[in-house]
């Protein structure tokens, strides 16, 4: 089916946006036909065949189920990250700091080191421990500028140890990264992270 008029395009777009949101985090047993019928009934002003109390009970049931599922995913991510970092720390070229941050020097710079108040220019490549890339200034071809004390704790700690011109690989425990919140849908809660970070310049 094709949509050519402006109202048709916007109508489809609204449905698509809602569908994309649900598809990104569906609950078990999602019934697309029932959802579409509910939308049609509401737009046509029809009375709901389901009582308010039934709605409340059903929504609470699904919410509880999704929270339990999220807790399982978080527990798995935390265990995976911890196991990875434990094995990684055994490698000869890995330095482990008191906080638990791990790093590997790929290129040793000879310039000044930034302070927590400095603004720096960096190139970076961010990965989960399974190797999947979630963000990369390298792939965008555009360095990132930011204050050292306005990023995740693992970055703030590492950058202050890095001479300008250095390139390090950081292995960051979840508590020095995004912790229980995760970030942007691409970083699950409790995820350990890997970053290749190149300190290009200390801007100020």
Automatic annotation (TrEMBL):
Family the entry assigns: Belongs to the FKBP-type PPIase family.
Q: Where is the PPIase FKBP-type domain?
A: 117-203
InterPro entries per the UniProt record, alphabetical: PPIase_dom_sf, PPIase_FKBP_dom, PPIase_FKBP_N, PPIase_FKBP_N_sf
Q: Which domain of life is it from?
A: Bacteria
The protein's Enzyme Commission number: 5.2.1.8
In the UniProt record, does the keyword Signal occur? yes
Swiss-Prot/TrEMBL GO biological process terms:
protein folding
Q: Name one Pfam family in it.
A: FKBP_N
Q: Which GO terms describe its molecular function?
A: peptidyl-prolyl cis-trans isomerase activity
Enzyme class comes to: isomerase
Specify the protein name.
Peptidyl-prolyl cis-trans isomerase
Q: What UniProt keywords are attached to this protein's entry?
A: Isomerase, Rotamase, Signal
Query: What is the gene called?
Result: fklB
Quote the catalytic activity from the record: [protein]-peptidylproline (omega=180) = [protein]-peptidylproline (omega=0)
């Amino acid at each position: 089916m094709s949509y050519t008029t402006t109202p048709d395009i916007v109508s489809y777009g609204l449905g698509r946006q809602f569908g994309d949101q649900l598809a990104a985090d569906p609950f078990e047993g999602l019934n697309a036909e029932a959802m579409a019928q509910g939308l049609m009934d509401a737009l046509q002003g029809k009375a709901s065949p389901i009582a308010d109390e039934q709605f409340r009970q059903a929504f609470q049931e699904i919410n509880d189920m999704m929270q339990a599922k999220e807790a399982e995913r978080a527990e798995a991510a935390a265990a995976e990250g911890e196991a990875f970092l434990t094995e990684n720390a055994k490698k000869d070229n890995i330095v482990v700091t008191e906080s638990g941050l791990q790093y590997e020097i790929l290129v040793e710079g000879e310039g000044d080191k930034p302070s927590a108040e400095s603004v720096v220019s960096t190139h970076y490549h961010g990965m989960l421990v399974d190797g999947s890339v979630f963000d990369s200034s390298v792939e965008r071809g555009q360095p990132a500028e930011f204050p050292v004390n306005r990023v995740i704790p693992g970055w703030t700690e590492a950058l202050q140890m890095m001479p300008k011109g250095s390139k390090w690989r950081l292995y960051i425990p979840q508590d020095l990264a995004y912790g229980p919140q995760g970030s942007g849908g691409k970083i699950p809660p409790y995820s350990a992270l890997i970053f290749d970070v190149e300190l290009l310049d200390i801007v100020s």
